[in-house]
Amino acid sequence: MQPIPRLYFITAAVFALLGMIWGIVMSATMDHTLSPAHGHLNLIGFVMIAVFGTYYALVPKATEGRLAVIHYGLTVLTVIVMVPGIVLAINENGEILAKLGSVLAVLTMLIFLYVVVRNRSD
Ligand code: HEM
Question: What's the structural domain count of the chain?
Fold first, then answer.
């Protein structure tokens, strides 16, 4: 497997493990207050990154140039900003990080759309 999709899959697995441990802690403590943050860690950190990694594995041409790495960095940054942002918002400690995280999430998906449209399969 090419290095870039491998990086996406390793990152996805790490976020999934963190999200699962968080889920187990929520279950064990019976405190589900932060479940939206857990959900976003799993869905953006695992599912979205794994979907992007699958695309880059299927279309190696799309990994040429810098955009796939920028896309990776922006997606990881989205998780790092959004998940604590949701925790802060739930705890009523401000919404700015959650808002910034959602803007980053949209940018991440716009880049994905651009990459898919630009790399027509042959
Ligand atoms: C060891 C694995 C996992 C455990 C123990 C776990 C546990 C939990 C718990 C206790 C809740 C709160 C349920 C409630 O309050 O009704 C929850 C919510 C949720 N989980 Fe997980 N989870 C796990 C893995 C995952 C994975 C892999 C995903 C997605 C790919 C995921 C996505 C979600 C979502 C979307 C919610 C709902 C969030 C919300 O209500 O806002 N979870 N999980």
Answer: 1
Question: 104 C-alpha vs ligand 1 centroid, how far in Å?
Answer: 23
pLDDT along the chain (122 residues), means of 10: 95 98 98 98 98 97 96 98 98 98 98 96 60
Q: What is the pTM assigned to this prediction?
A: 0.94
CA dihedral of 46, 95, 88, 47, whole degrees rounded to 10: -10
Distance 17 CA to ligand 1 centre (A): 12
Q: Quick count: other Cβ atoms within 10 Å of Cβ 48?
A: 22
Closest protein CA for atom 20 of ligand 1:
39
Give residue 100's domain range: 3-118
